[in-house]
Amino acid sequence: MSIEIECVGTDRHEEWDSALEHSPHATVFHRCAALEQLAAESGTELHRLMGFKGQEPIGVLPIFELRKGPFSAVFSPPPNLWIPRLGPAFVVRGDPKQRKRERRRQGFIDAAFEYIEDTIDPKYLRVRSPTGLDDVRQFKWNDCTVRPEYTYVTDLSGGKDAVRDRFTSEARRRLRIGQESESEYTISEEGLDATETVMHHVESRYNEQGEPFPVPTGFPGRLYEALQPGQIRPYVLRVDGDVVGGHIYYDDGDTISGWLGNVKPPDHVDLPVNELLIWRGITDAIERGRTAYELVGAGDPRLNRYKLHFGPELTGFYSMERSGAGIDSLLQLYRWFVQYS
């Protein structure tokens, strides 16, 4: 029996989200409520592709169609929202043999590409896989260019002391200075208003550097409202009542990820603001039973030097691209679609 693809509608939210409960690749952004928000914010058309073998769900692949004039592109995740990864989430029940796992995944991705070609016929396609999905050969066999990408993940096992011991001596020193400071500061996990406060800090920092900031200021707040409590977690640090820094996390269940924020604090603030925010995020995550803390991204050497202070391991994922115009045009096409989206 072959794998059948269905583009499921809003009336099947529970069925979609239920399948995610059995996928080690699912992220908070795979949830139906998040997908609808991503489509609205990016001006794209959402296609929720769900694969079945008979009545059994095999996997899901949310894709976002962006159309400009006569041309169309497919993204997962959509551009300009700083969603690090999305792509397919395969349903895993029990411990299937390698042959069965490969056959089902190949059938699902082949059927998904058949749908994409027949329904959208895109000029360009880009998919970024979730971490933990270490086999993306099916995309290569569907004429995609596959390249590895990376992020940093800190192991939270062993408790707070063990995690802190894996930090560099410089990070431990700065954290100790902050904790022993006589400055009157507080760190708190807050609600909707804090998402906008953090975003204003990030946008201001980018404006100071003369760099574009594509993420809509209200986007994390709208995700905060759409998702379940605790899936988006905004933290702020106040000195004498004034916000001087913040960080927005997303919580996938096992892993908490530092998504937006942690920009350079004001010059007059004599505190290691970002180290204190990261440590608070880590300690809260440990208390909730999380096993990993992601310092999202590992593609900027300057930022990498800072992130490595927190004892992370390099973790890989994949970016898959395809263009009808040939490999040499991939980057040009991507920039064209993103610029005019």
TrEMBL record:
<dbReference type="Pfam" id="PF13480">
    <property type="entry name" value="Acetyltransf_6"/>
</dbReference>
<dbReference type="InterPro" id="IPR016181">
    <property type="entry name" value="Acyl_CoA_acyltransferase"/>
</dbReference>
<keyword id="KW-0808">Transferase</keyword>
<protein>
    <submittedName>
        <fullName>GNAT family N-acetyltransferase</fullName>
    </submittedName>
</protein>
<dbReference type="InterPro" id="IPR038740">
    <property type="entry name" value="BioF2-like_GNAT_dom"/>
</dbReference>
<dbReference type="GO" id="GO:0016740">
    <property type="term" value="F:transferase activity"/>
</dbReference>
<feature type="domain" description="BioF2-like acetyltransferase">
    <location>
        <begin position="170"/>
        <end position="307"/>
    </location>
</feature>
